[in-house]
Amino acid sequence: MKINFQTNDYLLTWNLLYGASISSKVHAFKQKLWITYKKQYTGCQKDKDEMLHDIKNYIPDDDILYNLIFETEIFEVLKSETEKHRNALLKIWDENKKEIQKNLKEILKWSLKEEYNVLVLHPKMDSILTSKTAVSIGWGFQKDLENPIKTITNIIFILLNNELRNFELEYKEIVQAVLELAIHNELYTRISGTSNYLQGEKTLTFLKRQIYPYWLMYLGCEKEDMPHYMMRDKIAFDIDDYIIEEELKKVNLQEFIKFCIKNQKHIVRINHLEII
């Protein structure tokens, strides 16, 4: 798995037009553009999906507004600051990629795409841009450098979530819960050295706790080792209430999701899980 951190003038401009205004000066600039170039401004809205689908070959149908913005001081500053953020994210990835790639292989147990594109956006805009037809994403947050491991695992989660967007659509909540266990929880825990199993989307907390014993089986934990993981992750369950599913350690993440879907009535029946 390789992540390409890039910037793109067109996507930066699109996010400038439709993202949050990072200053009063930018807000006034956007208002002026709207008044003067309303037709072009409205016409650009559809461009984001096309950019993410094939950013290398993207050419706008109407580049009047883009070219006008490219010549402004506002865009020069935006581009310069975004490039600095791209370099910071690239450094985080380079410093951690070997360990991340190794652990992702062990956790997911399936071959990822060789390359993923992250199109870096200005951090003050706090943006995630995705498309139903693309694996590439747009990304940029003010807090990205506060917890580098959290940032890189969040990016990986969005990339994989985007890749699995059409997988078992009818059971999207289970897909999300397992993907959280894999990336936000297990991958982060391994890379940071600190358990992150109590973090994630609050609406998925109960479901994740129900899946957790089977998740440990999937990771290959032996019965005698489970108390250690329960203490590590601060999630307790009665081991004797569960039959150890030996086959789970042989399946990949997608197959594990299908197991959870097939056996959901059995998995969710137990409500004795608790926080230690």
Distance between the first and last residues' Cα: 36 Å
Counted beta strands: 6
Order of SSEs, N→C? Answer: EHHHHHHEEEHHHHEHHE
Rounded mean pLDDT is 93
Radius of gyration: 22 Å
Unreliable residue stretches: none
Structural class: alpha/beta
Q: Strand count, sense and closure of the main sheet?
A: 4 strands, mixed
Shape category? elongated
Within the largest sheet, what's the order of strands? Answer: 1-2-4-3
Tally of helical runs: 12
Can you put this structure into words, describing what you see?
By secondary structure, the chain is α/β, with parallel strands linked by helices. Helix content is 55%, strand content 8%. It has twelve helices and six strands. Strand 3 and strand 4 form a beta hairpin. The protein is elongated and about 70 Å long. The model has no long low-confidence stretch (mean pLDDT 93).
Please write out the topology.
Layout: E1 2-6, H1 9-18, H2 24-36, H3 38-43, H4 47-53, H5 64-70, H6 73-108, E2 115-120, E3 127-129, E4 137-140, H7 148-163, H8 172-192, H9 205-218, H10 226-233, E5 235-236, H11 253-262, H12 264-267, E6 274-275
Parallel strand pairs: 1-2, 2-4
Antiparallel strand pairs: 3-4, 5-6
Helix pairs in contact: 6-8, 7-8, 8-9, 8-11
Quickly describe the structure:
With 276 residues, the chain is of the alpha/beta class. The chain has helices at 9-18, 24-36, 38-43, 47-53, 64-70, 73-108, 148-163, 172-192, 205-218, 226-233, 253-262, 264-267, and strands spanning 2-6, 115-120, 127-129, 137-140, 235-236, 274-275. It has twelve helices and six strands.
